[in-house]
Amino acid sequence: xxxxxxxxxxxxxxxxxxxxxxxxxxxxxxxxxxxxxxxxxxxxxxxxxxxxxxxxxxxxxxxxxxxxxxxxxxxxxxxxxxxxxxxxxxxxxxxxxxxxxxxxxxxxxxxxxxxxxxxxxxxxxxxxxxxxxxxxxxxxxxxxxxxxxxxx
Length: 152
Known about the structure:
Helices cover 76% and strands 0% of the residues. By secondary structure, it is mainly alpha-helical. It has one domain.
């Protein structure tokens, strides 16, 4: 029975983590907490959640890369001068903001902006994956420690 739950838990966690950084307002942390409390392997759980969420933000980054010009002109209505200025500022300081992609509400739009302003995929991946891994590891650790404390 436990193997069956684990078999469904990991794919569900992956899908939920993948969809969470899109425009669909979902959170994946709750399922990670449930899985840790039900004694699924915490390393596997964090790995699956991080991989799903990372691939989800890569999709958001790609939307920014390929849909950026349209988004800038049609949706955001930013002129060429302001866009060039934003590009220069982002290249100088902004890519480090991707470390904050783990934050709720602002994190996923940061990834979209990274795509729109052409953040390199290698740096994007390193910074975003670091932030996502740190968030899921912290949630899993706090859940595990909290459960241990409550059992005492």
